[in-house]
Design a protein that fits this description.
- The chain has 10 helices and 3 strands, in the order H-H-H-H-H-H-H-E-E-E-H-H-H.
- By secondary structure, it is mainly alpha-helical.
- The protein has helices at 6-18, 59-80, 85-88, 92-96, 104-125, 137-147, 150-163, 210-213, 217-224, 230-241; strands spanning 168-174, 180-186, 197-203.
- The model is unreliable at 13-36 (pLDDT under 50).
- A 3-stranded antiparallel sheet has the order 2-1-3, sandwiched between helices.
- The structure holds manganese (II) ion.
- Residues 65, 69, 120, 203, 205, 207-208 line the site of manganese (II) ion.
């Protein structure tokens, strides 16, 4: 389904409840045509061109990954929450950290699709044209402290991504004790679901690499390091570390 329209939202909540929301109240009797402000989750455009990460990640893969796969998580998340207007008004970050409160009959669908939406939002922002190299500053220092040096970190992270059985992600994440660690998550789970604070994630679902790399996940992982946007990752790390 499309994000719920303002009109559908009004039908669900009734005019009285609408006054409690952040939206300005325009009684229908006034006959004023209001813009259809959508409520629910939306897919932002990819923050760069589909071919920006060539030759490491090909344009066709990026297009399908964003326009079809990520779009499907957003669509299915809205669909799963279509009878839960209060959840449609929350941020995806709030949803993935509050799964226990989601009604049980839709919890798995919400977990999978909110996770998929959150993970891909982070993933696109983690890469850039002309990326790669190494982190600098605080993040570099803390990676060295946690994993000996950058090469050891890179090799453990790559190994974690390679060994993920089936579909999932590899993460550099701050655990609840405040320590940097490398963790895999299955499916579309995120470390946020376990009170972690993800810093960098690598998508190892086949849809992320199969067109160009087929079964050669190791080649995809090696190539992906050349896309990492370390300045953005450092900013994310500093914000997450607090
Ligand atoms: Mn993906």
């Amino acid at each position: 389904m499309e994000p719920i329209s303002r009109r559908e939202m009004l039908k669900k909540l009734g005019w009285g409840a609408m006054a409690l929301t952040a939206f300005p109240l325009v009684p229908p009797a006034f006959g004023i045509k209001v813009a259809e402000e959508s409520i629910g989750f939306t897919l932002p455009p990819l923050p760069y061109a589909f071919d920006a990460l060539e030759p490491h990640i090909d344009a066709r893969t990026m297009e399908i990954h964003h326009d079809k796969h990520h779009a499907a998580y957003v669509k299915n998340l809205n669909e799963a929450l279509k009878d839960q207007p209060e959840w449609l008004g929350r941020s995806v970050w709030d949803v993935v950290t509050s799964l226990k409160e989601v009604p049980e009959k839709i919890r798995t669908a919400v977990r999978n699709n909110a996770g998929g939406h959150a993970n891909h939002l982070m993933f696109w922002e983690s890469m850039k044209k002309g990326g790669g190299g190494k982190p600098k500053g605080e993040l570099a220092k803390d990676i060295d402290a946690a994993f000996k040096d950058f090469d050891s970190f890179k090799s453990t992270f790559s190994e974690t991504a390679l060994k993920m059985f089936g579909s999932g992600w590899a993460w550099l994440s701050i655990n609840p004790a405040g320590k940097l660690e490398i963790v895999p998550t299955p499916n579309q789970d995120t470390p946020l679901m376990d009170a972690g604070r993800p810093v960098l994630g690598l998508d190892v679902w086949e849809h992320a690499y199969y067109l160009k790399y087929q079964n050669r996940r190791d080649d995809y992982i090696s190539a992906w390091w050349n896309t990492v946007h370390w300045d953005a990752i450092e900013q994310r790390y500093l914000a997450a570390r607090g």
